[in-house]
């Protein structure tokens, strides 16, 4: 583990900072952690309408070109609602006090492109694409009865963001449109997550 | 890892975990347990039936009675009247006609039962065979549902085609399970019974209604 930090030339994505020129031949690995809030869309909003304020992310990435990084993205987003509305399932309608929750764990691989917009890369935007899976645990409790099922959903997630470099790392913001396709009887899920995080070189 | 990153990561992760680890709340009031569930036979066309008939009594199904020996007890008259009048109101509101005063056979028979047991499956096939001869014609008397376990303190209501489909037997076309009608507070329970029945019809009106 390095005991000193190296000023990076520009900041990278969810977890990325750019490598110093002196280390250009050794692509840096970058780590980022983030707080996330998410806006549910479609079926996800039907099941748990409120905005999710509970979410974290962990990103690891490495640059394969000065303007392209590949990496892994993990997260945990919790959607929750307490409602007395009617839920519809397989010709059955149920009304009562319900606790509904979706625990979503994205496990994605990604590629991100950092266009050179100026010689000063203290502010570095990027666009990216994620592909992989979403582990989604759907929880429903009505009265004394609770049902929980977990499925692995194939998913895609386009993403845009920006890094604000500082001498010791970078603060980053991004928005990711998460799409988890239907699996195991659980329909297509969508949510837009916003991340605020900090990234550093490892 | 940079020194800053090393110091920032643990608190950020801790905050994140704290935020994410929140779990749903629990039940605070007994009414939080009230549940109304309705289900239907998707192959049954509710546009066809127009008339119905209500039962004259509502059995209280307990584990004390063996239906092959004698019929179960009945709900008290005041509760029976409350439930039947509410069912009548809701069926009428959905556009069906009660032909209680007519000799004609109804298109639908409404059945209801209050449950004090957790398993009523063995009641289904017995009524007409053992006790139906007391009543002619043999309308379904117990809700002839195809499920086996309910919670104590529930009211179950069924709409059953009449005469019964030869292929399906006396399976209901629509079933409502209203949980939470027995808490020990009579006045509150009466309101919950009415509200529960009304909710059952409201949430099914898209296909029940005329």
The name of the CATH architecture of chain A is Beta Barrel
Distance between the termini of chain B: 69 Å
CATH level 1 name of chain A: Mainly Beta
How many individual helices of chain B? 5
Structure write-up:
The complex is a heterodimer of chains A (202) and B (210). By secondary structure, chain A is mostly beta strands. Chain A has one helix at 43-47, and strands at residues 29-41, 54-65, 68-83, 86-89, 92-96, 98-113, 123-142, 145-166, 169-180, 189-201. Chain A has a single domain, classed as Porin (Beta Barrel), CATH 2.40.160.20. Chain A contains one helix and ten strands. In chain A, the strands form two sheets. An eight-stranded antiparallel β-barrel of chain A has the order 1-2-3-6-7-8-9-10. In chain A, strands 4-5 form a two-stranded antiparallel sheet. In chain A, a hairpin with an 8-residue loop joins β9 (169-180) and β10. Chain A is elongated and about 60 Å long. The N and C termini of chain A lie close together (8 Å). The model of chain A is unreliable at 1-26 (pLDDT under 50). Chain B is of the alpha/beta class. Chain B has a single domain, classed as Double Stranded RNA Binding Domain, CATH 3.30.160. Chain B is built from five helices and eight strands; from the N terminus they run αββββαββαββαα. Chain B has helices spanning 3-20, 77-93, 127-131, 186-202, 205-208, and strands at 35-40, 51-53, 59-61, 73-74, 97-98, 108-115, 154-161, 174-179. In chain B, strands 1, 2, 3, 4, 5, 6, 7 and 8 form an eight-stranded mixed beta sheet that branches. In chain B, α2 (77-93) runs parallel beside α4 (186-202). Classes of the chains: A mainly beta (202), B alpha/beta (210). β5 (92-96) of chain A pairs antiparallel with β1 of chain B, so a sheet runs across the interface.
């Amino acid at each position: 583990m390095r005991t000193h930090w190296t000023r990076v030339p520009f900041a990278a994505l969810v977890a990325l900072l750019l490598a110093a020129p002196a280390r250009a031949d050794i692509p840096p690995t970058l780590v980022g952690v983030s707080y996330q809030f998410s806006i549910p869309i479609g079926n996800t909003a039907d099941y748990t309408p409120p905005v999710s304020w509970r979410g974290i992310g962990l990103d690891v990435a490495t640059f394969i070109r000065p303007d392209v990084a590949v990496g892994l993205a993990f997260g945990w987003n919790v959607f929750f609602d307490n409602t007395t509305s009617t839920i519809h399932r397989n010709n059955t309608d149920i009304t009562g006090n319900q606790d509904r929750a979706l625990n979503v764990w994205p496990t994605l691989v990604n590629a991100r492109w950092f266009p050179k917009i100026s010689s000063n890369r203290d502010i570095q935007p990027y666009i990216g694409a994620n592909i992989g899976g979403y582990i989604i645990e759907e929880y429903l409790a009505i009265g004394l009865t609770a049902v929980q099922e977990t499925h692995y959903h194939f998913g895609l997630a386009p993403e845009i963001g920006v890094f604000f470099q500082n001498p010791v790392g970078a603060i980053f913001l991004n928005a990711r449109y998460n799409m988890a396709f239907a699996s195991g009887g659980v329909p297509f899920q969508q949510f837009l997550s916003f991340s605020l995080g900090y990234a550093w070189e490892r | 890892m940079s020194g800053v990153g090393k110091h920032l990561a643990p608190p950020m992760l801790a905050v994140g975990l704290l935020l994410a680890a929140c779990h749903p709340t629990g039940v605070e009031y007994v009414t939080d347990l009230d549940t109304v569930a309705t289900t239907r036979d998707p192959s049954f066309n509710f546009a066809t039936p127009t008339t119905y008939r209500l039962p004259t009594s509502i059995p209280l199904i307990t584990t004390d009675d063996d239906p092959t020996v004698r019929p179960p007890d009945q709900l008290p008259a005041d509760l029976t009247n409350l439930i039947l009048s509410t069912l009548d109101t809701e069926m009428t509101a959905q556009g069906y006609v009660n032909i209680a005063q007519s000799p004609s056979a109804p298109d639908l028979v409404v059945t209801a039962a209050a449950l004090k047991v957790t398993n009523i499956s063995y009641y289904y096939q017995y009524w007409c065979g053992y006790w139906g001869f007391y009543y002619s014609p043999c309308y379904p008397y117990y809700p002839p549902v195809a499920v086996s376990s309910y919670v104590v303190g529930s009211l179950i209501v069924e709409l059953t085609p009449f005469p019964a489909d030869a292929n399906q037997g006396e399976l209901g076309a629509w079933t409502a399970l209203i949980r939470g009608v027995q808490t020990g507070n009579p006045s509150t329970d009466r309101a919950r019974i009415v509200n529960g029945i009304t909710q059952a019809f409201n949430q099914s009106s898209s296909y029940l209604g005329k």
